[in-house]
Design brief:
This protein has a domain of about 80 residues: Substrate Binding Domain Of Dnak, Chain:A, Domain 2 (Up-down Bundle). The chain is mostly helical. Helix content is about 85%, strand content about 0%. It contains five helices and no strands. Helix 2 packs antiparallel against helix 3, helix 2 runs parallel beside helix 4 and helix 3 runs antiparallel to helix 4.
């Protein structure tokens, strides 16, 4: 067996070991907490209070699980936090859709007022310059 084959086998064994799996899961959970807190902070005014509190509770559960180093607890808490954090995105999307519908209805109301202003008015153009030259 060559050195590179040995290296591949030992790398595979380390990556598939439970310790590596738990470290990877802990890293993913930590990243989830960071990204979710960052997103919540940037969009706090757009997220309803009930969803914010639910997200904060879920993130607290993940942090607690990370402190305990319990792989199964980290997995469960992370999955719940991911599901709850999706509610933030849904709430922001729905709010944006409502604002867009509102602005479209306002523009439709505003355009109906301008249609009255666009009435055709018949007028006769009189060129006074030509009439003076004809008099001479």
């Amino acid at each position: 067996m060559g050195f590179f084959a040995f290296l591949r086998i030992t790398t595979f064994m380390r990556l598939s070991s439970p310790a590596s799996c738990s470290a990877s899961r802990a890293h993913q959970a930590d990243s989830l907490v960071y990204q979710t807190e960052k997103f919540l902070g940037e969009n706090e005014d757009k997220v309803p209070e009930d969803i914010k509190s639910e997200v904060r509770e879920a993130l607290a559960e993940v942090k607690k699980a990370l402190e305990s180093n319990d792989t199964e607890a980290i997995k469960t808490a992370s999955e719940r936090a991911a599901q709850v954090s999706q509610k933030m995105g849904t709430a922001i999307y729905q709010q944006a859709q409502a604002q867009q519908a509102s602005s479209q209805s306002e523009s439709a109301d505003g355009s109906s007022g301008t249609q009255d202003d666009d009435e055709v008015v018949e007028a006769e153009i009189v060129d006074e310059g030509d009439s003076e030259s004809e008099k001479r």
